[in-house]
Amino acid sequence: MVKSLDQQLVKQIEEICASRGVRLTTQRKRVFELICTSPKASSAYELLEQLQKVEPQAKPPTVYRALDFLLDQGFIHRVESTNSYIQCCSCNAHQHYSHLLICDKCSNVIELQDDSLVALLVENAEKHGFTITNHVLETHGVCRNCRSE
Where is the signal peptide (predicted)? Predict the structure, then answer.
């Protein structure tokens, strides 16, 4: 199953790149579109395989450079526990930390944004004199669809 591509979203990241003075190359854009149309988190090699259908000459460094760019710009998230990638739900409209719900059966990933959870994490860290610069919060389980099967 393939999700439909939101052309408005693609236009939004094009505008963000233009305003930042960074290049959204054809390959970077294509990798972003592949991530957006996948119903689950995609590994770099899954993305490479899909990219090679339209660009047979594409090699792993092509995909990894595109992923690095998309991560740096805040357009995607890396799912650390599965070494895969998903679209950021806000495409960096505002800086945020996300909480990922990962289905261990179908590999679907849901991104949550909970400012109260982040505030609690910051508060707990500050109690220990610790400053958070990044965090990864991933929760594994079974999604509603897989539970009902």
Answer: none
Is residue 92 predicted with pLDDT exceeding 70?
no
> In this structure, what DSSP letter does residue 143 have?
-
Torsion angle, alpha carbons of 103, 104, 107, 108, to 10: 0
What pLDDT score does 31 carry? 97
* Residue 140 near residue 102 (C-beta atoms within 8 A): yes
Read off the pTM.
0.84
* Residue 59 neighbours by CB under 8 Å, 6+ apart: 48
Q: What share of the chain is helix, strand, coil (3-state, %, to 5)?
A: 50, 15, 35
- Sorted by sequence, the CB contacts under 8 Å of residue 83 that are 6+ apart come out as 43, 44
Task: Quote the longest CA-to-CA distance of the chain.
Answer: 53
Task: Determine the Cα–Cα distance for residues 88 and 79; give it in Å rounded to an integer.
Answer: 11
